[in-house]
Specification:
Elements (H helix, E strand, L loop, with lengths): L2 H5 L5 H26 L14 H16 L1 H29 L25 H4 L1 H22 L6 H17 L10 H9 L3 H16 L25 E6 L3 E6 L5 E3 L3 E4 L17 H7 L4 E6 L11 H20 L4 E6 L1 H16 L4 E7 L17 H14 L1 E2 L1 H10 L2 H14 L8 H6 L5 E2 H13 L8 E3 L2 E3 L8 E6 L7 H9 L6 E6 L18 E3 L7 H6 L2 E3 L4 H9 L5 E3 L12 E2 L9 H6 L1
Parallel strand pairs: 4-5, 4-6, 6-7, 7-12, 12-13
Antiparallel strand pairs: 1-2, 1-17, 2-5, 3-16, 8-9, 10-11, 13-14, 14-15
Helix pairs in contact: 2-9, 3-4, 4-6, 6-7, 9-15, 11-12, 13-17
Keywords: Acyltransferase, Cytoplasm, Transferase
Subcellular location: Cytoplasm
InterPro entries: AB_hydrolase_fold, PHA/PHB_synthase, PHA_synth_I, PhaC_N
């Protein structure tokens, strides 16, 4: 079968006329699109990228180096020109072959030495002269840009890392797959569907813009496929306490007896807690109850502009301490085992320091899931934690009272732009496809706003100034320090986590004052490394009892363990959870059940609140 026979649809005159007619619908949708964009809310321009001075300094440094060493510049130019000529020659060869014989367009693909790239999976990138040349020239240009950035000198390390990030974003944005005229998959589908794919794609684009007040937030999942409490977040339980900060859910027991000491789990408030309860097969919440524990989980408020003045002290006082006191009261115990995930783990460490200074022993042990306490190395977030970007966030907060969810979502997404921005945008807007019914992506798009005061405390005091491990973080009349975390600690980190890198988490745990510290590195990333049930048997984990060495030495001396870390954690937790007692139903006379799990707060959408 020839290339043309396998990919070319019917392109009769009647077919073309139908395509033209469908394009009239595109024009109407375009007008609707302009109306949506005209109503778009503004945000500080510094949130769109760095001050142009960064590029000016980089260009000056680059050309200064080249002026000192013109031979180096000539060498780079000749190499670039040479590769461009090779790309053109290959395209000419393909064109000549395609014109030979009785089957125009039939060619054998040219072997490529470039690394495999899912964006260029269509055979036409290799066999069609036009697309082959575009791909090869794009890859050549991308390599030239990255090499130029790598060779820039006379700028500090932070600026160079920022320059590399933003240069890479330009490279990713300019990929030929991101444009209709140079995307063979999209072009083929447009012809096959007589333009209907483009109409559907434009409808998807307009719908996404309308749902986010004119901001382009690509919808990652089919929202109609999921309903919280029906097919996700379904583990049985009851809300047993509610205040202006959170709902506290107590889950129903699944065993006749339970450990005396309950668990209180604090999820991050940047997203919703049900990442730990997506479905029964991978629900950590369900699994914990099956191991014979009384489990309480906090479901945080999704704040609106009226909550702008809520700070970390409110999260600690009305969130952590209220949840702990409620769990102690219901279970009639003096201590709980606490768990904190991501930013909630960071704040759990602040809470532990506060309780240490108050002489309060309510927390018996602490487990941290991918939680940072030492921010001395900002990793991939370096571009977003410099003053120009943080100043822009502060301006955004001044104008709106909170850090809107879409800004955080966009920031996290562009760290993996091909997977979370351009790929979904191509499928939705160019191909006209409905986003997949994927629960993890649904959760990823169900974000939360951050109160303005809390966001700036976190960004300035912890992320930028790293006060918790330096001179101390001033809060609630105390100077909080990581060394005051003295309860037994188990930290779970993830090998490929780009949000809370395991080496950074390790450095923070090393500085904790606890005499009993267990550190684990799970395979995979920030979510998949944590949501890794034993039944899946997909990812293993690394352990090493020597926490005095540096991170590289720890990893070199670590033991690899097959399977999930969950049973290892449960074995550790069991030793700190007391005797067996009769299973507890949710609530008591002082804390009657208010509503079934997953509660009401989790259902509040950030987009709706931010636009009210």
């Amino acid at each position: 079968m020839t290339t043309s026979e396998s990919t070319d649809p019917d392109v009769s005159p009647e077919h073309i006329e139908r395509i033209k007619k469908n394009m009239e619908q595109v024009e109407q949708l375009s007008k609707r699109l302009m109306d949506v964009l005209a109503q778009k809310k503004s945000h500080p321009t510094s949130l769109d990228g760095p001050n142009q001075e960064l590029f000016a300094r980089a260009a000056t440094a680059y050309w200064s180096e080249m002026a000192k060493n013109p031979a180096k510049l000539l060498e780079k130019q000749v190499a670039y020109w040479g590769q461009a000529v090779v790309n053109f020659a290959e395209a000419q060869s393909l064109l000549a072959k395609s014109l030979e014989g009785d089957s125009p367009g039939e060619t054998a693909p040219i072997a490529s030495t470039a690394p495999a790239d899912r964006r260029f999976a269509n055979p036409m990138w290799q066999s069609n002269p036009y697309f082959h040349f575009i791909k090869q020239q794009y890859l050549t240009n991308a390599e030239a840009i990255r090499n130029a950035v790598a060779e820039v000198e006379d700028i500090d390390d932070i600026d160079k890392r920022r320059l590399g990030y933003f240069a890479d974003q330009i490279v990713q944005m300019m990929a030929p797959t991101n444009f209709l005229a140079t995307n063979p998959d999209a072009l083929e589908k447009a012809v096959e569907t007589e333009g209907q794919s483009l109409i559907k794609g434009l409808e998807n684009l307009v719908a996404d813009l309308e749902a986010n007040d004119g901001e382009l937030v690509v919808r990652l999942a089919d929202e109609s496929a999921f309903e919280i409490g029906r097919n996700i977040a379904t583990t049985p339980g009851e809300v047993v306490f509610r205040n202006e900060m959170m709902e506290l859910i107590q889950y129903r027991p699944t065993t006749e007896t339970v450990h005396e000491t309950p668990i209180v789990l604090f999820p991050p408030w940047i997203n919703k807690f049900y990442i730990l309860d997506l479905k029964a097969q991978n629900s950590l919440i369900k699994w914990v109850t099956e191991q014979g524990y009384t489990l309480f989980v906090v479901s945080w408020l999704n704040p609106g502009a009226e909550h702008a003045d809520l700070g970390l002290e409110d999260y600690i006082e009305k969130g952590y301490l209220s949840a702990i006191e409620t769990a102690k009261s219901i279970c009639k115990v003096k201590q709980v085992n606490a768990v904190g995930y991501c930013i909630a783990g960071t704040t759990l460490s602040l809470t532990l320091s506060l309780l240490k200074q108050r002489g309060d022993t309510s927390i018996k042990s602490a487990t941290f899931f991918t939680a940072l306490t030492d921010f001395s190395d900002q990793g991939e977030f370096t571009p977003f934690l410099q003053n120009d970007f943080i100043d822009g966030i502060e301006e955004e907060i001044t104008n709106n009272g909170l850090l809107r969810s879409y800004i955080m979502a966009r920031t996290f997404s562009f760290l993996r732009s091909n997977d979370l921005v351009y790929g979904p945008a191509i499928r939705s807007y160019m191909m006209g496809e409905t986003p997949p019914a994927f629960d993890l992506l649904y959760w990823n798009g169900d974000g939360a706003n951050l109160p303005g005061r809390m966001a700036m405390q976190y960004l300035r005091g912890l992320c930028q100034r790293n006060e918790f491990v330096r001179d101390g973080f001033e809060l609630m009349g105390h100077t909080l320090h990581v060394r005051d975390v003295t309860v037994p600690v188990m930290a779970i980190t993830c090998e490929t986590d780009h949000i809370a890198r395991w080496k950074d988490c390790y450095r923070g745990v090393q500085q904790m004052g606890s005499r009993s510290k267990t550190f684990v590195v799970a395979q995979s990333g920030h979510i998949a490394g944590i949501v890794n049930p034993p039944t899946r048997d997909k990812y293993g984990h690394y352990t090493n009892t020597d926490l005095k060495v540096d991170a590289d030495s720890w990893r070199e001396g670590a033991t690899f363990n097959e399977g999930s870390w969950w049973p290892r954690w449960e074995s550790w937790l069991k030793k700190r959870s007391g005797k067996q007692v009769p299973a507890r139903d949710p609530g008591d006379s002082q804390h009657p059940p208010l509503t079934p799990a997953p509660g009401d707060y989790v259902r509040v959408k950030a987009r709706r609140q931010a636009s009210d």
